[in-house]
Structure formats: C-alpha cells, structure tokens
Write a structure and sequence with these properties.
single chain; 8 helices; globular; 54% helix
Length: 196
C-alpha cells in the first residue's frame, strides 16, 4: 500500500520475499513467446499506464538494444527484434485521448500497426485499466497473442490475456518493481538466444 512506513531493510526484505513467490514458468513463457515472434519476424507491442507505462518504455528500450551484441551493431544482416512501446507516441495518444477518449489510445495504434502473429504485452498493476482491456480484446479478436502483467487480484486482464505474469500483492510499487525485475531476466534470456 502506498504510504506504508517501513525502514529500507524491511522494504527490501519484503521485495525479496515477494520475488521468490513469482512463478518462474510465467516469466519463461514471456521470453519464449518473444523468441517465437522474433524468429517469425513479427512485432512485439508493449502497453501500460503510469509506472507500468514507464516499464513498457523501459522494457522496449532494453529489448531493442540489449538483446543485440555490440559486434552486430553495424551488421545489417543480423535480424533485430521488432518491438515498440505504444506509450511513447505522445501526440497520437493525446489526440485520441482528447478527441475520442483515453480508452482508445492503445487500440487505435494497434489498428494502424499490428498484424496477425504479432504479440501484445499489456502491463496493468490492477488489471482493470479500460484502455489496456480494450487493446487486449481487439488483439485477441485479430490474431495477436496477448500476454498480461498484473498485480493485486489480476483484474480482468488476468483472464482476458492468453498468458500472464501475475504478482499477487496489493502494493503497486512492489508490483511494478517485480515486473521490471522479470523483464530484465527476459532481456538477458533473449540476448543469449539472439546474440550468443
């Protein structure tokens, strides 16, 4: 819960304790699905709001650059991971949000950019953000695989997405921290598969 007082050692101990509760197979599934998309030359799209939006941008940056070995930076024959965070197109987001409603800011980008066989990674601590759910519903109807990253009870996203990484605690900061920790493992795993 936001505002809970505890000393740094207790907070860090709690984060460590919660990390050990995460199901490793869920993290592995995310890595495996991204690897499959990479091999097929398809796109990964990542979405989220607030801190989850920051995690979406961070994950996208790490996956786009961090899965490539430096020796391949100028190797145009080396296949790159096609990944895009839909949180970063600010004018597009503001246009849809202002004119038609915030629940459209991600789904409308998918309509322009996505194709069957792509992967949508949807990050929502509550699992109930309307713009996330609308994008996942559209993706499911249009041949994309959907992977949800949730906290708390998981909300609607936990049942709507094809697979999930679920952090079952009621503390948004720790949920977001654990998501990002899991994403860093996925980056390392994809680096091993793509560049080693």
């Amino acid at each position: 819960m936001i505002g809970r007082q505890m000393d740094p050692r207790a907070f860090l101990a709690r984060v460590g304790e919660e990390l050990r509760k995460i199901e490793p197979k869920e993290v592995q599934t995310l890595a495996d699905w991204i690897w499959d998309v990479y091999q097929k030359g398809r796109f990964v799209f990542v979405i989220g709001n607030g801190g989850s939006g920051s995690n979406a941008s961070h994950f996208c940056e790490d996956m786009g650059k961090g899965t490539l070995d430096k020796k391949d930076f100028d190797n145009d024959a080396k296949r790159r991971l096609k990944i895009l965070s839909l949180t970063d197109n600010t004018p597009y987001i503001l246009a849809w949000g202002n004119d038609e409603g915030f629940d459209r800011v991600f789904v409308e980008q998918l309509k322009n950019l996505a194709s069957p066989g792509d992967l949508l990674v949807a990050i929502s601590g509550s699992g109930n953000s309307p713009n996330i759910l609308r994008a996942v519903e559209w993706a499911n109807r249009n041949g994309l695989k959907t992977f949800g990253c949730t906290g708390f009870s998981g909300g609607e996203l936990r049942t709507l997405a094809n697979a999930n990484l679920h952090v079952p605690i009621d503390d948004m900061g720790i949920v977001e921290s654990i998501h990002l920790t899991a994403f860093h493992w996925v980056v390392d795993d994809l680096y091993r598969r793509i560049s080693m």
